[in-house]
């Protein structure tokens, strides 16, 4: 059916394209969401929907996107709020109140449709008896909290109780997101704005002396609340607390004048809050304080180095642009540290520099190379570069919001992604669109080889970058830089070093002061007896020892004369010494050269400790042994050894264990157990239901908008979806400007065609045909010669194995394949509704189905090339330039595309701001869910007898470990672990540390060669203590090598390495040619060694070549 295009008679009448769009608004016109506000329908902005553009306080979860057309009177984007002039357009910057607070806060989260349970006096009193963690989780997930805090008046005793409970809730160190949720509600409440100021003001006129003398306690609670509010919301809370902060000093002075004792600490805390608010107000006036994610820092005096506790972990602007050497101290390997503070500062700065330097040097080199013509083919030592990168749309993952990012794949067409080192999980990414004047930092959150082959990767941005993403549109083009370091490992440890309190570090006497006089573990007394009978058993043997025999093996552990012989305990002489040292000293170091049985001894130590756990476990709280290894492989091996004598009570945290035996002990499997789910405390179960419900709803809202946003990148949008972004006179010009050769207005089939395609030179008219002729000349396709990837991993699919090894626990964002395909189909279905022409050739109909000739196919291919080239361009027309245009059809083709990109960017910006609210809701809920899972994990770990983790896992789970309080920590491969990693593994409760390793065999691997060699970063705590003559045992009998091979190691590397009698019985190797010895040397003629070695160390690569067998 042919339809004539009429000039719109009324400003509200939209272009309907020849069809009634009541039923054709696309896939989002479901009715199940009635009452949740107006939804976004196929790009159409509904009547009175301007509020979504102008107001933050959209009731009912905000207006949603559905399909794309402007309904009656809905030129909201263009006309603004209450503006009578037809030509004026609403700009993002004209909306000063829109999302000024990028931090996801409780006040922005919507209530779930659940029955509100009122919070009363008795309920609050009962909370005071609970653990702070339970208090904050209960309150943060309670539907009645908002109602409680919204009261305009409150009885004094009830208000005092509320303050008490809030103070207790905020003291939880493990549940910071729940604390943030709770304080977000307090910040926006009548309780803070009306009730508290009234209560404090009434103190001045209180006549009863007994009541007056109770006030100091309540004042202290209120000041504590103010401190918490300002520290979490430094921008948005300052104004909210101003009245309260004004009346507090007056009331305190009045109370003091009437004889009430106000403590010095209360005065000091109030003064701190006042100074902090004054500091923040100054920052705001300077314009340097815009968002609640501002890090509060105490001003430094001139010449004083910034304390490591307030340093940002991510690189700063100055670090990226100025080639200035940072302040670093070398790791002190010859003696004691001046103080614990300097010790922590030293290791924080060294570890941070180890990942920052390659990025800094890479970006500096890149900035100097921007003018080079061959930049896209240039290789950089420290970074990998991805061009024309675009942040397409947000996605929901189990751990929060991630973003789908697309990069130019042409320079990387030879990369074999399944075994490439590129874009591995946890790698640090830096993105910039302005030569690194501003940077967005992210980590790779999910790596799918099929997606990577199409230039798609998922990134998780840090909190500061998330705030900047609000203004990013899919059309923005970034340069993306990747560093080779596994950033996740750095992040958890650096955060741990900043959080740990100096007084909480155990064994400072040895670690910091290097005292060699080692004491016994605090839990041992001279009368403590250990039963060594299980150590005499061979776990592989069926022999059993009679119970009477077991009783006779009990000895006083500190009296080594009573100990059984080495032979009885199935140990050699040096292994016996190691066992004795490990059980009787609070910090023990055991060095095990190759084949000397250090793992065997380690297992004997664990067996002895577990057999006698009644000695070191308290009756109040169970305390597991914490076993930490550097690699997942070593952890699996050690835990499998423990399993031979400990069949239950074990938990393996983090990573995908490759061991079938240990699968039952992983957190993932233990969480699934029905009895565990039912034994969880009720407050956790309730919170879980509420948060997941919140996430599901936010995800549904977000998913629709994000899909819409992504579709705008698939091709040219149909004009009916852009109408609200086009000035009225431009709309009239566009729709009525095309005239056929015979002078008649152009007729076309509206269901299949679009005026905007004609205007952009992509249609079917003579004008379009002429435009198509010049496409190839204007946009020659670039040919990429490309090169084979330089850094392939040796094992196929090794990239997948590394990803599996890096994932600590429940961090995967991968979706089942079926769901991915369903989403893909949904997105392309929506694209058919939204787009006038798609980039992809999927069942696409053009306006001339009759002319599917070879000539037309060639022309269409040229059009698609033209469209692709234009959509990749960044230049858009300015608002000022656009206003001056009257007749759109008089513009040259280049100007038309520039104007189209202005409309597109306005449209994308509108969607982006619409879905921002849901992003924040989902992110806040996901962070609370992560904390909730930690609480669940704590319930599992506190019942365990042995907990196994990698060093990275231990750093990530540091808050849980502080609560689990493991008294005994055993670190295997301790000589391979950077000292900072070791320190963050230890909690305040640790009374016994056993380090097992060999510093002469393997050292920690640093990313930067200079730091490893000149700043002693590659020296572990294990090696450093050995170097300062700390007592240790070296195992000296090797059970593995034939004597000829052992001769290579002793005395050149190990002074005393003797052969165990068992190795003397080895048979000679049988080969087809004559060997005069058991050892043969082969010269591979492998070039320069030194340079290769240095490069290998610097880049953290493994050995280049291995020759064996």
TrEMBL record:
Gene Ontology CC entries for this record: nuclear RNA-directed RNA polymerase complex
Bilayer-spanning residue ranges: none
SUPFAM superfamilies per record: P-loop containing nucleoside triphosphate hydrolases (SSF52540)
Domain of life, source organism: Eukaryota
Region of interest (Disordered), ranges: 1-99
Domain ZNFX1 intervals: 378-484
Annotated ranges, domain DNA2/NAM7 helicase-like C-terminal: 1017-1092
Coiled-coil spans in chain: none
Annotated ranges, domain DNA2/NAM7 helicase helicase: 571-1004
InterPro entries per UniProt: DNA2/NAM7-like, DNA2/NAM7-like_C, DNA2/NAM7_AAA_11, P-loop_NTPase, ZNFX1
Biased composition (Low complexity): 66-81
Annotated GO MF terms: helicase activity
GO biological process: regulatory ncRNA-mediated heterochromatin formation
Name of protein: Zinc finger NFX1-type containing 1
Source organism (scientific name): Buteo japonicus
């Amino acid at each position: 059916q042919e339809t004539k295009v009429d000039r719109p008679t009324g400003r509200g009448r939209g272009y309907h394209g020849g069809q009634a769009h009541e039923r054709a608004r696309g896939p989002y016109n479901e009715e199940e969401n009635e009452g949740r506000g107006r939804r976004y329908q196929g790009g159409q902005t509904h009547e009175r929907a301007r509020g979504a553009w102008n107001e933050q306080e959209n009731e009912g979860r905000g207006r949603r996107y559905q399909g794309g057309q402007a309904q009656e009177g809905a030129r909201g984007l263009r006309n603004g709020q209450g503006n009578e002039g037809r030509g004026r357009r609403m700009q993002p910057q004209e909306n000063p109140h829109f999302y000024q607070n990028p931090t996801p806060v409780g006040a922005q989260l919507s209530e779930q449709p659940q029955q509100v349970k009122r919070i009363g006096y008795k309920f609050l009193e009962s909370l005071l008896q609970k653990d702070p963690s339970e208090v904050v989780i209960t309150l943060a997930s309670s539907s009645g909290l908002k109602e409680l805090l919204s009261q305009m008046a409150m009885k004094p005793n009830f208000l005092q109780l509320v303050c008490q409970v809030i103070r207790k809730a905020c003291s939880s160190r493990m549940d910071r997101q729940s604390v943030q949720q709770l304080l977000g509600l307090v910040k926006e409440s009548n309780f803070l704005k009306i009730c508290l100021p009234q209560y404090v003001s009434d103190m001045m006129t209180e006549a009863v002396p007994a009541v007056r003398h109770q006030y100091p306690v309540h004042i202290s609670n209120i000041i504590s609340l103010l401190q918490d509010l300002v520290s979490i919301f430094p921008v948005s809370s300052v104004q909210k607390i101003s009245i309260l902060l004004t009346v507090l000093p007056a009331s305190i002075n009045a109370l003091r004048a009437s004889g009430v004792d106000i403590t010095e600490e209360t005065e000091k805390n109030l003064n701190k809050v006042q100074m902090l608010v004054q500091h923040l107000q100054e920052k705001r006036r300077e314009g340097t304080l815009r968002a609640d994610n501002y890090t509060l820092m105490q001003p430094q005096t001139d010449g004083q180095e910034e304390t490591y506790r307030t340093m940002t972990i991510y690189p700063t602007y100055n670090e990226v642009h100025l080639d200035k050497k940072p302040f670093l101290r070398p790791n002190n390997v010859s003696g004691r540290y001046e103080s614990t503070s300097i010790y922590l500062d030293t290791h924080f700065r060294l570890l941070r520099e180890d990942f920052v330097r390659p990025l800094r040097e890479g970006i500096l080199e890149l900035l100097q190379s921007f003018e080079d013509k061959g930049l896209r083919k240039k290789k950089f030592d420290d970074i990998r570069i991805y061009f024309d990168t675009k942040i397409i749309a947000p996605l929901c993952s189990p751990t929060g919001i991630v973003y789908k990012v697309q990069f130019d794949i042409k320079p990387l067409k030879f990369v074999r992604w399944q075994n490439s080192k590129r874009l591995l999980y946890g790698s640090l990414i830096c993105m910039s669109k302005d030569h690194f004047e501003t940077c967005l930092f992210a980590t790779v959150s999910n790596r799918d080889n099929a997606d990577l082959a199409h230039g798609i990767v998922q990134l998780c941005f840090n909190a500061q970058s998330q705030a900047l993403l609000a203004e990013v549109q899919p059309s923005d083009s970034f340069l993306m830089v990747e560093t080779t370091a596994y950033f996740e490992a750095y992040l958890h440890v650096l955060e741990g070093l900043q959080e740990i309190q100096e007084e909480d570090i155990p064994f400072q006497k040895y670690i910091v002061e290097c005292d060699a006089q080692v004491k016994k573990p605090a839990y041992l007394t001279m009368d403590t007896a250990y039963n060594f009978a299980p150590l005499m058993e061979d776990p592989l043997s069926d022999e059993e020892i009679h119970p009477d025999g077991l009783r006779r093996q009990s000895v006083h552990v500190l009296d080594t004369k009573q100990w059984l012989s080495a032979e009885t305990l199935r140990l050699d002489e040096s292994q016996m010494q190691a066992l004795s040292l490990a059980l009787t000293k609070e910090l023990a170091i055991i060095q095990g050269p190759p084949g000397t049985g250090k793992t065997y001894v380690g297992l004997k130590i664990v067996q002895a400790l577990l057999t006698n756990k009644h000695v070191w476990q308290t009756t109040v709280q169970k305390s597991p042994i914490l076993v930490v290894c550097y690699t997942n492989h070593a952890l699996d091996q050690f835990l499998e050894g423990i399993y031979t004598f400990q069949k239950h009570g074990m938990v393996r945290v983090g990573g995908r264990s490759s061991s079938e035996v240990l699968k039952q002990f992983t957190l993932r499997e233990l969480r699934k157990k029905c009895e565990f789910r039912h034994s969880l405390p009720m407050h956790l179960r309730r919170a879980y239901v509420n948060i997941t419900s919140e996430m599901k709803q936010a995800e549904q809202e977000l998913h629709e908008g994000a899909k819409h946003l992504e579709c705008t990148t698939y091709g040219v949008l149909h004009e009916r979806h852009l109408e609200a972004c086009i000035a009225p006179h431009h709309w009239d010009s566009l729709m009525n400007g095309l005239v056929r050769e015979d002078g008649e207005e152009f007729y076309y089939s509206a269901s299949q065609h679009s005026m905007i395609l004609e205007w952009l030179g992509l249609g079917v008219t003579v004008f379009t045909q002429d435009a198509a002729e010049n496409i190839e000349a204007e946009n020659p396709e670039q040919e990429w010669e490309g090169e084979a990837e330089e850094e392939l991993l040796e094992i196929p699919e090794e990239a997948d194995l590394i990803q599996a090894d890096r994932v600590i626990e429940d961090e995967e964002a991968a979706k089942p394949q079926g769901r991915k395909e369903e989403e893909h189909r949904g997105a392309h279905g929506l694209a058919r509704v939204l787009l006038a022409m798609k980039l992809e050739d999927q069942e696409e109909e053009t306006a001339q189905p009759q002319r599917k000739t070879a000539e037309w196919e060639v022309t269409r291919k040229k059009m698609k090339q033209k469209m692709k080239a234009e959509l990749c361009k960044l230049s858009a027309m300015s608002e000022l330039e656009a206003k001056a245009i009257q007749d759109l059809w008089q513009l040259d083709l280049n100007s038309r595309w520039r104007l189209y990109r202005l409309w597109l960017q306005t449209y994308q910006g509108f969607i982006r701001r619409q879905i921002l609210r849901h992003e924040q809701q989902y992110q806040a809920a996901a962070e609370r869910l992560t904390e909730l899972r930690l609480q669940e994990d704590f319930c599992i770990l506190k019942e365990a007898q042995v907990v196994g983790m990698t060093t990275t896992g231990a750093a990530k789970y540091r808050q849980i470990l502080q609560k689990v309080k493991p008294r005994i920590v055993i670190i295997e491969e301790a000589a391979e672990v950077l000292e900072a990693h070791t320190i963050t593994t230890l909690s305040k409760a640790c009374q016994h540390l056993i380090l097992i390793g060999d510093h002469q065999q393997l050292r920690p691997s640093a990313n930067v060669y200079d730091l490893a060699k000149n700043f002693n970063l590659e020296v572990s705590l294990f090696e450093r203590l050995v170097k300062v003559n700390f007592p240790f045992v070296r195992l000296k009998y090797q059970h593995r090598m034939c004597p000829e091979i052992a001769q290579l190691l002793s005395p050149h590397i190990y002074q005393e390495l003797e052969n165990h009698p068992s190795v003397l019985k080895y048979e000679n190797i049988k080969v087809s040619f004559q060997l005069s010895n058991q050892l043969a040397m082969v010269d591979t003629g492998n070039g320069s060694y030194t340079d290769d070695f240095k490069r290998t160390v610097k880049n953290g690569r493994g050995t280049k070549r291995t020759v064996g067998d």
